[in-house]
Design a protein that fits this description.
The complex is a heterodimer of chains A (113) and B (113). Chain A is mostly beta strands and 113 residues long. Chain A is 0% helix and 53% strand. The chains are: A mainly beta (113), B mainly beta (113).
């Protein structure tokens, strides 16, 4: 059974650019969440989508946005990139909404020059 | 934002030894989860706990959901070299909070053969 797939695995951008990351959840999973992982702040929740609607949002600026498609696949976008956005961005999927365990992909490593 | 206190931050043990790590919170969670992350990969779910007082095993791993719902611990018995990695606890409120996870800072486990 295929797990959560994230593309690309690595990305290098410069300040001021924007970036789009992609996530395909486990087949049948309808909820997708995004997390940012950095050495200083650890794993922090960005947002969660269910049935194409953003249901929860973490404490991140509006430059971070996302969406979910009808096939449950999700994308997140970061605009006007800053050096501090360098991080591992992890996508996780769950079967349904509320109290379901999350299963993670291997992440996209974003480096900002 | 809300933080989970995970300890110890790191452990360097001899192969065959037992390991114990724990996580505490100032708030109640309805679900506790434990994940392991290897370098270059996303966190992998080890154990999920759904009820206060619950004790659950997965091979050499045993985890417990604290009675107060504010803590959890993970034990690894007879450690082997492949246990090396970073272990994370995560709390989940569930219900209207969806599947969002709040993570501890991680315990880095190193095993000496």
């Amino acid at each position: 059974k295929a797990g959560v797939t994230q593309t690309p695995r690595y990305l290098i951008k410069t300040r001021g650019q924007q970036v789009t990351l992609s996530c395909s959840p486990i087949s049948g999973h309808r909820s997708v969440s995004w997390y940012q992982q950095t050495p200083g702040q650890g794993l922090q929740f960005l947002f969660e989508y269910f049935s194409e609607t953003q249901r929860n949002k973490g404490n991140f600026p509006g430059r971070f946005s996302g969406r979910q498609f009808s096939n449950s696949r999700s994308e997140m976008n970061v605009s006007t990139l800053e050096l501090g956005d360098s991080a591992l961005y992890l996508c996780a999927s769950s079967l349904g909404w509320g109290g379901q365990p999350q299963h993670f992909g291997d992440g996209t490593r974003l480096s900002i020059l | 934002g809300q933080q989970l206190n995970q300890s110890p931050q790191s452990m360097f043990i001899q192969e065959g030894e037992d390991v114990s790590m724990n996580c505490t919170s100032s708030s109640i969670f309805n679900t506790w989860l434990w994940y392991k992350q290897d370098p270059g990969e996303g966190p992998v779910l080890l154990i999920a706990l759904y009820k206060a007082g619950e004790l659950t095993s997965n091979g050499r791993l045993t985890a417990q959901f604290g009675i107060t719902r504010k803590d959890s611990f993970l034990n690894i018995s007879a450690s082997i070299p492949s246990d090396v990695g970073i272990y994370f606890c995560a709390g989940q409120l569930g219900d209207n909070a969806g599947n969002m996870l709040t993570f501890g800072g991680g315990t880095r486990l190193m095993v000496k053969p």
